[in-house]
Amino acid sequence: MEFRIATDELKKALYRAQGIVERKTTMPILANVLVNATKSGVTVTAFDLDIGIVSEHPAEVSKPGAVTLSAKYVFDIVQNLPDAQVTLKKLANNYVDISSGSAHFKIVGMAAEEYPKLPKEESAPLVQISGNTLLEMIKKTQFAISSDETRYILNGVYFEPQAGGKVRMVATDGHRLSLIERELTGDFKLKGGVIIPRKGLMELKRLLDEAPDAECHLGFAENSALFKKPGLTMVMRLIDGQFPEYQRVIPKEGEKVVMVPKMSFLESLKRIALLSADKSYAVRIGLEENKLLITANNPDLGEARDVLEVAYRGGDITIGFNARYLTDVLSVMETDEVSFELGDEHSPGVIHAPGDRSFTAVVMPMRV
Amino acid sequence: MRKIVHIDMDAFYASVEQRDEPSLRGRPVVVAWRGQRSVVCAASYEARTFGVRSAMPAMRAERLCPHAVFLPPDFTRYRAVSRQVHEILARHTSLVEPLSLDEAYLDVTEPKSGLPSATEVARAIRRSIREELRLTASAGVAPNKFLAKIASDWRKPDGLFVIRPHQVMDFLAPLPVGRIPGVGKVMEGKLAAMGISTVGELRAVAAVELEQRFGSQGRRLHELAHGIDESPVQPERPVQSISAEDTFERDQPLEALGPTIRRLAERVWAAAAREPERIGRTVVLKLKTAEFKLLTRSHTPPTPPASAQELVSIALSLCGRVELPERTLYRLVGVGLGNFRDTAPARPQLKLFD
């Protein structure tokens, strides 16, 4: 194997691999990327047995071949090369010579034959989608994914095609829930919803962020998802299991509805939560006539209080919340005002844009 | 100078059995579960003359003393008797640190019974245990816990031994280093390699050298060799961890451990429920392979497990983090709940669903 490639191209390929390769693993080769040079160019593959990406790059290949190399070390090297071009050449015993300008590196690699094979997902019916829309959907649900590894089913986002060319994405950790419905026209040929794991979703987000306007395709087959954009293919295993019946926990309409200026609400929550007890981010929210009060008290520090002027005429209520659950939601919303709906102090609070429930966040209160 | 008493019940479980069943008196009694891998919980002194010791495999005890009476342990009864012992101890001081059902340290520097010396306290305790419970206990009296424990063993069974402050150095000098708590086979070997086999020889080594070789453990060795042990008697320490484990009759593969893990987790949960003011945050799964390789996996969920079911499911899920080859067989599995804290005032996050 021998090829010459633009340093920036190789850097891009290795950057994409960083989030996927496993550092702590019983299979050392999973810390490597598979570099494969063919007549048509070079592909760089990263795979952790659940998520794999194949990144294609133009290169002058003088001798086709393949080898695997440490994703981390080679990325560090490539970031520090002196020249805009770099040559990779496989030597005996899977050593690889990396040369750029006056610099030479001789790096230990591992045989390409030992690299695990990515699942072939040619059967997946691919649907062309808007990268921007998918990116928005990921950003507005990812924060509600459960990080409790024992609640495996909740360690991902539920992807559920709806009638009329829409797709719903839902994430929940059992304490709060985030739902978004957007147009992603096309037939995914799915019988119901599927659960996309957090790590795969984060990688997908990173790839979409690179160029959200690029032509993107998404498809599902068996128990995996396939994502393609020019020069890149991603395969990931889905979470196997039944997502909870989320519709059940979304209240129809709260008894108490208030329009709140989003930025002031967000900033006030962050400010007051500084005084919440034991890093619980517990704050109390009080609604009175034309007033929204936010308070917190910490037995060791003291107390904090803030007031927002709002148009409100429902009954008085004081309810506890984890401020972070609210700020997570407010930070991803674009509207100047948000609709905040409450029932009683034990019922969930609901946030959505005024008159638009296509993005809805549900947050359970705290007992305070 | 502190005055510490160590009380150690003689062949406790076996003695309780002999007391309650007159036909067992004078006969070798071994308390152990039946089974390939069970170990001896207690052996009466009659059984000990045949070489039976506690913690020895039950099979071996059976070979050594085939005519012994083997009884399954009845911890409920032993616990009840242990409480009665504790009541006797508590008459003399509130500074009682139980080590197990049959052992405790007492700080009797200022006994509330007003007896003139620690030796008198030890005598009174032994007398009460004999008269009220019809059982015997050995007692050690010394200026600290470490010496008191050695002393209680010195005249066992049914004995009393006192180490007075001025006798400490002479008493310790000829003892093998293995008598020092924390010196096991490995440390003994390392010390032997340095030409040290007695406490007196250990004392001759400079503190700096011990510390260089063994770190903080070296410093501790140096102190103990000089009869210094400042560790206080800690009455009823709040629970730090609760665990249960089981050794299989036959080694099992990982996928067969589910039912045992479930049972152990339920047992741990039941024990934890008896400590409502403390809450365990970390779930631990412990495994020992057929080759005696020990591994543990733990998980601290964002909110502590709140039900037996939750504990069971976390313990089971930890199996997924065992990365040994599938054909690995296990001889032991244990489930623990650790990292206990005082229960925080309730401010729970309500749930959308379970």
Q: What is the end-to-end distance of chain B?
A: 57 Å
CATH topology of the largest domain in chain B: Alpha-Beta Plaits
Give the helices and strands of chain B as they follow along the chain. Answer: EHEEHHEHEEHEHEHHHHHEHEEHE
Number of strands of chain A: 25
**So what's the CATH class of the largest domain in chain B?**
Alpha Beta
Largest sheet properties of chain B: 5 strands, mixed
Summarize the structure.
Chain A has 368 residues and is α+β, with helices and mostly antiparallel strands. Chain A has helices spanning 7-18, 71-79, 131-139, 198-210, 262-273, 323-331; strands at residues 2-6, 32-38, 41-47, 51-57, 60-63, 65-70, 85-90, 95-100, 103-108, 127-130, 156-162, 166-172, 176-183, 194-197, 215-221, 224-229, 232-237, 256-261, 282-288, 291-298, 302-309, 317-322, 337-342, 349-353, 356-363.
Features:
heterodimer, A: 368 residues, alpha+beta, eight-stranded antiparallel β-sheet, 6 helices, 17% helix, 43% strand, elongated, B: 354 residues, Alpha-Beta Plaits, DNA polymerase, domain 1, Dna Ligase, domain 1, 3 domains, five-stranded mixed β-sheet, four-stranded antiparallel β-sheet, 13 helices, 12 strands, 22% strand, globular
Outline the structure in words.
The complex is a heterodimer of chains A (368) and B (354). Chain A has helices at 7-18, 71-79, 131-139, 198-210, 262-273, 323-331; strands spanning 2-6, 32-38, 41-47, 51-57, 60-63, 65-70, 85-90, 95-100, 103-108, 127-130, 156-162, 166-172, 176-183, 194-197, 215-221, 224-229, 232-237, 256-261, 282-288, 291-298, 302-309, 317-322, 337-342, 349-353, 356-363. Chain A is an alpha+beta fold and 368 residues long. In chain A, the strands form 4 sheets. Chain A has an 8-stranded antiparallel sheet. In chain A, strands 14-11-12-13-25-24-23-18 form an 8-stranded antiparallel sheet. The longest helix of chain A is centred in the middle third of the chain and has 13 residues, at 198-210. Chain B is an alpha+beta fold and 354 residues long. Chain B has 3 domains: 1-142, Alpha-Beta Plaits; 169-225, 5' to 3' exonuclease, C-terminal subdomain (DNA polymerase, domain 1, Orthogonal Bundle); 241-342, Dna Ligase, domain 1, CATH 3.30.1490.100. Chain B is built from 13 helices and 12 strands. In chain B, β7 (137-142), α6 (145-154) and β8 form a beta-alpha-beta unit. The chains are: A alpha+beta (368), B alpha+beta (354).
